[in-house]
């Protein structure tokens, strides 16, 4: 693992990267940040967990489990023990996370229906780094359990998302604040040319997408049929033809 430290006026911050092998047949790179307050170890450290191989929910579960273990070592040095513990137990934390997630999904089906599923239609002006951009959008949709389509037709680029309203809101934040594309000089940049065409609650006549797909259409008719099949004819008529002008 990589071990760095940065002294601060309010304690010390450790940035640690560890590779955990044999989890779902792939290596998982965990990026851990421990902030040790000045009265550590009498006070628990602040812990941050990130990984490209795990979802946000899984990273939160890893953090929660690390904090649980930290409480058992209060008043004694613990960072090394916590690192060894997560290396040995990550597989079980992830499995437990998946089980809890499935239970929550089952228990909340009725609540989600009552709260309503929301739909978001976005228009992007362009994608310079298309392959990377598409991969990023797919990952965000997967992490936030959003379904729908990333649609290309000529120069038109549309993102249609369905899911819990809070997750739709979080997606919008990611879309607007992350360096997801490159500018004309090839430098990474945030998305500035994005339009929210529609944000509304999914109605009974609307088809629910089961997954998120990237699709390309040769003609406007093909794109229109995509919307019609999903019960979104009005949405298409109102927002898509003006993009051709």
From TrEMBL:
Q: Which domain of life is it from?
A: Eukaryota
Q: Which residues form the RWD domain?
A: 1-93
Q: Which UniProt keywords apply?
A: Cytoplasm, Nucleus
InterPro entries in the record: RWD_dom (IPR006575), RWDD3 (IPR038840), UBQ-conjugating_enzyme/RWD (IPR016135)
Annotated compartments: Cytoplasm; Nucleus
Main subcellular localization, coarse class? cytoplasm
Q: Which Pfam families match?
A: RWD
Q: Which GO terms describe its biological process?
A: positive regulation of hypoxia-inducible factor-1alpha signaling pathway; positive regulation of protein sumoylation
Q: Among its keywords, does the record have Nucleus?
A: yes
SMART domains cross-referenced by the UniProt entry: RWD (SM00591)
Q: Name one GO cellular component term.
A: nucleus
- Protein name as catalogued: RWD domain-containing protein 3
Q: Gene behind this chain?
A: Rwdd3
């Amino acid at each position: 693992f990589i071990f760095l430290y940065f002294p601060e006026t309010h304690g010390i911050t450790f940035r640690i990267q560890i590779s955990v092998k044999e989890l779902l047949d792939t290596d998982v790179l965990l990026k851990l940040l421990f902030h040790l307050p000045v009265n550590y170890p009498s006070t628990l450290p602040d812990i941050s967990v990130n990984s490209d191989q795990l979802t946000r929910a899984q990273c939160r579960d890893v953090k929660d489990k690390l904090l649980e273990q930290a409480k058992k070592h209060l008043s004694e040095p613990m960072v090394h023990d916590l690192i060894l513990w997560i290396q040995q137990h990550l597989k079980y934390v992830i499995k437990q996370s998946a089980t809890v997630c499935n239970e929550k999904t089952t228990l909340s089906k009725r609540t989600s229906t009552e709260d309503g599923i929301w739909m978001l239609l976005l228009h992007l002006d362009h994608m310079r780094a298309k392959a990377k951009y598409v991969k990023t959008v797919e990952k965000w949709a997967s992490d936030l359990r959003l379904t729908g389509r990333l649609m290309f037709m000529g120069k038109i680029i549309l993102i249609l998302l369905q899911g819990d309203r809070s997750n739709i809101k979080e997606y919008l934040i990611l879309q607007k604040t992350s360096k997801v594309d490159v500018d004309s000089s090839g430098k990474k940049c945030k998305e500035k040319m994005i339009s929210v065409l529609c944000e509304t609650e999914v109605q009974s006549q609307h088809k629910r997408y089961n997954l998120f797909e990237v699709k390309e259409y040769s003609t406007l008719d093909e794109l229109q049929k995509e919307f019609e099949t999903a019960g979104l004819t009005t949405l298409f008529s109102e927002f898509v033809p003006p993009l051709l002008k």
